Amino acid sequence: MTTRFVTPSDSAVRVGDAERGHAADHLGQAFTQGYLSMEEYETRLARAFEAQTAGALRDLLTDLPVAQIIRRDPRRRAQRRAAARRGVRMHLGAYLAVSVLMIAIWLVTAVFAGAWYFWPVWPILGWGIGIVSHAIPVGACARRTTAGS
After folding, report:
1. Where is the DUF1707 domain (predicted)?
2. What is the rounded distance in angstroms from the CA atom of residue 58 to the CA atom of residue 48?
3. Three-state SS annotation for 112-141
C-alpha cells in the first residue's frame, strides 16, 4: 500500500475513503508514538473522516513527523530484526535444554527399568519442526532487508 502525498497545487481536489484511511493510519502512528494526546487524536481522527479535500487532510498531518521518523527509521527496523533473532535464539536454547532433559530422563529410565525405546524422539522432532518454522521467516526477513540495503 503506497501513501499518496498531496502537493500544494491540488488542495481543492476531493478525497475518497482510501485517502481518509491513509490519514487515519498516520494519525494512529503519531498517537502511538506519543506525538498526539488522546483528545487531540480523537479530534483529528474525526476531522480526517469528515474531510472532503486533500488540503483538509494535509492540514491534519503537516505538523506530524509521521512519514520521516516513524515509517523510515532504520534504527527501529534494526531493533526489530535483532529482537526477532533473539527470539529465535531463546526458542532454540529452551529447545536444547528440554531435549537434553528428556534424553537424561530416558537414559535413567532405560538403565533402571530396562525400557530402551527412545521415546524422546517424538517431542524432540515435533518441537524441532516448530523451531525451524520460527527460524526460517526470521532468516528470510534478515536476508531480504540485507539484500535491499
Report:
1. 13-65
2. 9
3. HHCCCCCCCHHHHHHHHHHHHHHHHHHHHH
d(CA 32, CA 51): 22
Q: What grid cell was written down for 52? A: 472532503
How far is residue 14's CA from residue 68's CA, in Å, rounded to a whole number? 25
What is the pTM assigned to this prediction? 0.53
Q: Which three cell numbers stand for residue 36?
A: 498526539
Residue 46 to residues 38, 42, 57, Cα–Cα distance (Å): 12, 6, 11
CA neighbor of 95 nearest in space, from 65, 70, 120, 63: 120
Query: CA–CA separation, 84 vs 41, rounded Å?
Result: 31
Count of CB atoms situated within 10 Å of the CB of 140? 10
